[in-house]
Each structure stands twice: as C-alpha cells, then as structure tokens.
Amino acid sequence: MKDFDYAAASTVDEAVSLLAAQGDRARVLAGGTDIIVQLREGLRSADLVVDVKKIPELVRYEFDAKRGLRLGAATSCYQIYGDEALKQAYPALIDSASLIGGWQIQGRASIGGNLCNSSPAADSIPSLIALAAVAEIAGPQGVRDVPVEKFCTAPGRNVLGRGEFLVALKFPAPVARSGSAYLRFIPRNEMDIAVVGAGVWVRLNDAGNKIEEARIGLAAVAPTPLLAEEASTWLAGKPTDEKTYAEAGELAKKIATPISDRRGPADYRTHLVGVLIKRALAKAVERAGASG
C-alpha cells in the first residue's frame, strides 16, 4: 500500500477544509471497509485520508415518528438494526443493513459509506431509493441536499465534488399503512455481492386492499442503482394481489440493462428483476398491513 497522511476531523467544517485543500488526492474514511481495501489493492489512491468517525453528528441517528429519521453518514450498521422503532418504521433499511458483509463488517460499515462507494450492486441503495432518502452533503459552498436516486453517476462515482462529503441521510416520517422490503439474489446465503437487488416501499388504502403509492429501487442491473419510476407510478390504485406484483415486475424489467459477468448472464439478471420485485412487493404489503 502506498503511504498516505491521516487526519481525524472533529467537526464538519474541519473535514471540509482538509478535503478541499487536497482535492481529489484526499479520501474520506468512515468505516473503512471499502476504502482501505481499495487503497491496499491500488484501486484508488490518496495522499490524505480524512477520518470522519470522530465528528459526533456523523456517528449518531435521530428518529422521531413525526419528523422522520436523520442518519449520520458514518453510523455503523449494527447501531441501527437493533432498534425496534426503526425496524417498524423503515424495515427495508434494516433488511439492507443486516446484509452488508458479515457481523464483523457490520460493526464498522455504514449505510453512508455504502452509498458513497457507489457500487451498482450496493445493498443499501435500492432501499434508500425506495424510502425516498435524501443525501445531505457538506462542502466549501455550504450544505446541499441530493435525492439518493440522483447521487450515483457511474460505477464508483457520484455527485460529490472537491471538498464535499456526505454528512447524513434524511428519511421522511413513516406514514400509516406503509411498509417496505429489500431482497437480493446471491449465489450463496451470506456475504456475497448481489446479482440483483430490489427495494420496495408501499402505502395502502384504508381497507388495505389497494396500493396508494409505491417506490421501487433496483441494483446490479445498470451502471448505477435505479428508481423504477414507471413501475412505481403504475402501482398506484392497483389491488394487492399476485397479478399486480407480477405486472409491476415486468414494467421494472424494462429499465434493466445488466451486463453479463461471472455472477450471471444479462438475460438471467433481467428475469430476476421480475422475480424479486414480485416477492418484495408481497413482503412490503404484508408489513404495511401489519403496521396498522
């Protein structure tokens, strides 16, 4: 590994100043589960690594049922998936947090870091898209918000500019009769990269037999994770049955442009989009019905 300098920022302003001074020769260290591996293997390089885990607001979360969730970007996965209130309010987020690496990795890895790594197959991003999460970014020009579906721009690339870094993820307050779920397909049971990932959020009508609103996020089927807008919009007003779920899956397949690689051929991955959407919708609707 090439030598680099290390600095631990204690405030957001200090981190911005350090990052801006080094430009693209600086990297952010949160959990380090991606960046340390990438530096060691020469996939990325840096003259300065800025540790942001000592900034208090980056390693905590605040949840209020009326205001929603503000999740510090460096908050470790294990800190959130044991919270019963978050399990009820944002089950897809907990699904994702429980799948990122093994238990040891989840002690360091964060949802924010998973987003900033910007892998097309990231487990957290379909759930973030489905839950309408917004990325709060700090930089030399101040603070700006970016919807998560617009955050990634290419494999391993995103909208972060010189001196900018992700501070928090903001989630809307949960609403009645809503539910969400994240499912992925992998060749083995644990610790693998998704062949396809699907995150779904739904809100049901009062009777619980129709979908009022929906959002669908996809991973590993394009250069960046995607919001399946047509399928999401189409679901409004549709009954909660297998036929609806299957048709939504067919619509979502239209935006999938996966590659063929050692994890699976493109046509198989496109097929999986329909399968996972169908199953994730059924699970999200079941959770919505249970939420009251």
Topology record:
Blueprint: E1 5-8, H1 12-22, E2 26-29, H2 35-40, E3 48-51, E4 61-64, E5 68-72, H3 77-81, H4 84-89, H5 91-97, H6 103-106, H7 111-117, H8 125-130, E6 134-139, E7 142-147, E8 152-154, E9 157-158, E10 165-171, E11 178-185, E12 196-204, E13 211-219, E14 226-227, H9 229-234, H10 242-253, H11 266-291
Parallel strand pairs: 1-3, 2-3
Antiparallel strand pairs: 4-5, 5-10, 6-7, 6-10, 8-9, 11-12, 12-13, 13-14
Quaternary structure annotation: single chain
The gyration radius over C-alpha positions equals: 19 Å
* Strand order of the biggest β-sheet: 4-5-10-6-7
Quote the beta fraction. 25-35%
Which segments are poorly predicted (pLDDT under 50) over 5 or more consecutive residues? none
- Total number of helices: 11
Beta strands, count: 14
Largest sheet: 5 strands, antiparallel
Helix content: 25-40%
- Note the overall shape: globular
The residue-averaged pLDDT reads: 93
Distance between the termini: 53 Å
Structural class per helix/strand content?
Answer: alpha+beta
The topology string of helices and strands comes to EHEHEEEHHHHHHEEEEEEEEEHHH
